[in-house]
Design brief:
Elements (H helix, E strand, L loop, with lengths): L1 H29 L7 E8 L10 E4 L2 E11 L7 E8 L9 E7 L4 E7 L16 E3 L3 H33 L1 H54 L2 H23 L3 H8 L1 H23 L1 H10 L4 H8 L1
Parallel strand pairs: 2-6, 5-7
Antiparallel strand pairs: 1-4, 2-3, 3-4, 5-6
């Protein structure tokens, strides 16, 4: 009998130890340190955004506790009551807010306690903390993408409306007709230009080649010409002209005397005046000179005048 009772006691002890180890391991896996005393606090949220039990609790990025459980009541506006546990050696000052933040890129949630910089009083365990929801990186990106998408949709809508108004007003049809007309004109011009290139350009090139050849011949003739002898002849002619003008200025030769001899000028002037008087008398008495030339004598009237 004693041996039987001893076995039952051993089995009971082993079962209690196993249950204790199971409880300790389960809480250890959940992140709960059963040997460390904690303070508990509560917060109310309208939505938990992926927050689960055993989610971490941070103060300035440092883990100080975890979410113990989440109780929901969908009949209330703020449907979720969240209980958190914080290490007992951490005092939560009055003015601290319980913020629901995004934990990682996969959309998980966490609790962050935002504490004031200066505090004179602290919360007791079991107090209700004010709460707020802090949008995460994905939320900000989603909001920005939604805004950009909305603006893009509005721009596309305006573009479609403008295109519809253009189609209804016939502007697009007229523009297409103008484009078709311009394309036809370009094709015609291109054909004309092609014909011009085929017909005129070869002749122009041939003429240009001929001109270049003639110019080459002229240049060759100029190179062959005795430019030095020509320049020497020109210099000789200039020297002769200079000597001629020197003789004229020195009143040597016929040309110098003609220019500088005043008596010769006076004789020429007298001769011109006599010739002029003779021409005047010839016009006044033409018979006198005709009779004299025919009969070789003077006019009778002149004889009478002489007799008288």
């Amino acid at each position: 009998m004693k041996i039987k009772h001893l076995r039952e006691i051993k089995v009971g002890i082993v079962a209690v130890v196993c249950l204790g180890l199971l409880y300790f391991g389960f809480n250890f896996l959940k992140g709960v340190n059963i040997f460390s005393p904690v303070h508990t606090y509560y917060g109310v949220f309208a939505a938990v955004n992926g927050l689960t039990e055993q989610a971490p609790v941070y103060i300035r990025g440092y883990k100080v506790g975890q979410v113990d459980y989440i109780h929901y009541d969908f009949t209330a506006d703020s449907a979720f009551m969240v209980k958190i546990s914080v290490n007992k050696d951490i005092n939560v000052p009055i003015g601290t807010t319980m913020d629901l933040i995004a934990d990682g890129l996969l959309g998980g949630g966490a609790i962050q306690l935002t504490v004031p910089t200066a505090a004179t009083a602290w919360h007791d365990s079991g107090d209700m903390l004010p709460t707020q929801v802090v949008p995460g990186l994905m939320d900000n990106l989603q909001a920005g993408l939604l805004e950009d998408l909305d603006s893009t949709i509005l721009a596309a809508k305006e573009l479609i409306e403008n295109a519809n108004s253009q189609l209804e007003g016939g502007h697009l049809h007229s523009a297409l007709q103008r484009i078709d007309y311009v394309s036809g004109e370009l094709a015609s011009t291109s054909h004309t230009l092609k014909q011009l290139m085929n017909d005129r350009v070869p002749a122009i090139v041939d003429n240009l080649d001929t001109t270049i050849a003639n110019a080459s011949v002229v240049v060759a003739d100029i190179r062959k010409a005795n430019l030095a002898e020509t320049v020497a002849r020109v210099d000789t002619a200039i020297d002769n002209i200079i000597i001629l003008f020197a003789d004229v200025r020195a009143q040597e030769g016929t040309l110098g005397q003609l220019i500088y001899d005043k008596s010769l000028y006076a004789n020429i002037n007298t001769t011109v005046q006599s010739a002029d008087s003779l021409l005047v008398d010839l016009k006044a008495n033409p018979r006198r000179y005709v009779h004299f030339s025919l009969f070789g004598g003077k006019d009778k009237s002149d004889k009478k005048k002489i007799k008288k």
